[in-house]
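Figure 6 in text form: structure in, sequence out.
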């Protein structure tokens, strides 16, 4: 017992430090509140691209805020009579858009902040938006009492073709989409670093604070299925696709043009003269190295046929049977013996010794036929 007490006294300082650290960590967690994130347009992100400022002001104004991270979490939240804000819609795929529209059909409005040409098409917008630079800002310029007196100031925004508020040469920044969709191309107006520019704060409060409840939907890439993920094709505007097809056709035509044949091959003389004897010896060495006695025997028989036809004045290309009869009549050898020596269909020599014997026999046969 005394040993345990002594050990406890020795490690008392270590235990005190450990308990103190645990208490400090607990206090930090309790004082910090909700966890911070770094995702753009996230209500828990205090950074420049986050939207914590708008979320907290809406909560202070009495709006009940619910954050749904992912499609499953969104379906667990009742959205009837509430406003649904979709942050970063470019992360949505075909399946998640379908789930959002189905579950959000009971909502008062679904505000889509930002987006891309591919996601606009998924929401049923036939004409894709285009990116614009607002410069000093843009007035509402519409009769909607909700925003008609406001001026929006952001760096970049998406301009949807058609009629709406904050209109410009190519479209508007705030337009009504199919069903209960509201498309906000100026999503930067909700961020912490730009919400105080112009009337951005008023736009955020009026657009998102109309109902007592606000569901802040933050899409999650893990909700995408294997066949509807965001791909390069969904991010490319439709007007670029014909140009890409034309570019492929032009490249194909250029490859065919440059890859065509440039005409028949030209024959050029060799830089050195190789004698026939050297060529024959080299060819013989190749036959010997490869062990191809069949080709060597065929070459010997063909050469003997040419020389015998020349000696008998029969001319080139004389049939083998006629040559055999002429050689047999001149030498007195039987025709079957001469045919066995000269026929290319004869069996190939099995050994080098047989090949040498064949060459010697053919040479002797030639010697028996004098020149005419």
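Output sequence:
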């Amino acid at each position: 017992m005394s040993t345990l007490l002594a050990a406890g006294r020795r490690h008392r300082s270590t235990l005190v430090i450990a308990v103190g650290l645990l208490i400090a960590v607990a206090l930090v967690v309790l004082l910090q509140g909700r966890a911070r994130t770094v995702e753009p347009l996230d209500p828990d992100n205090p950074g420049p691209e986050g939207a914590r400022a708008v979320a907290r002001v809406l909560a202070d104004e009495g709006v009940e805020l619910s954050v749904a991270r992912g499609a499953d979490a969104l379906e667990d939240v009742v959205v009837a009579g509430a406003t649904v804000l979709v942050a970063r819609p470019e992360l949505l795929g075909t399946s998640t858009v379908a789930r959002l529209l189905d579950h959000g059909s009971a909502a008062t409005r679904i505000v889509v902040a930002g987006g891309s040409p591919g996601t606009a098409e998924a929401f049923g917008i036939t004409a894709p938006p285009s990116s614009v630079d607002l410069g000093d800002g843009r007035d509402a310029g519409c009769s909607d009492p909700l925003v008609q007196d406001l001026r929006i100031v952001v760096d970049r925004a998406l301009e949807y073709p058609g009629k709406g508020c904050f209109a410009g040469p190519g479209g508007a920044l705030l337009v009504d989409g199919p069903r209960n969709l509201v498309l906000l191309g100026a999503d930067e107006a909700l961020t912490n670093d730009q919400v105080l520019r112009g009337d951005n704060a008023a736009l955020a409060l009026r657009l998102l604070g109309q109902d007592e409840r606000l569901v802040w939907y933050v899409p999650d890439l893990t909700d995408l299925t294997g066949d509807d993920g965001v791909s390069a094709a969904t991010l490319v505007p439709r007007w670029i696709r014909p140009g890409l097809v034309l570019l492929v056709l032009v490249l194909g035509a250029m490859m065919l043009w440059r890859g065509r044949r440039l005409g028949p091959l030209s024959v050029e003389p060799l830089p050195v003269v190789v004698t026939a004897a050297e060529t024959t010896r080299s060819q013989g060495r190749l036959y010997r190295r490869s062990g191809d006695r069949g080709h060597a025997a065929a070459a010997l028989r063909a050469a003997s046929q040419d020389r015998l036809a020349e000696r008998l004045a029969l001319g080139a290309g004389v049939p083998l049977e006629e040559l055999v009869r002429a050689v047999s009549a001149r030498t007195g050898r039987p025709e079957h013996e001469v045919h066995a020596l000269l026929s290319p269909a004869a069996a190939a020599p099995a050994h080098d010794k047989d090949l040498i014997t064949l060459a010697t026999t053919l040479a002797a046969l030639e010697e028996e036929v004098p020149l005419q």
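Caption detail: The CA atoms of residues 8 and 15 lie 9 Å apart.
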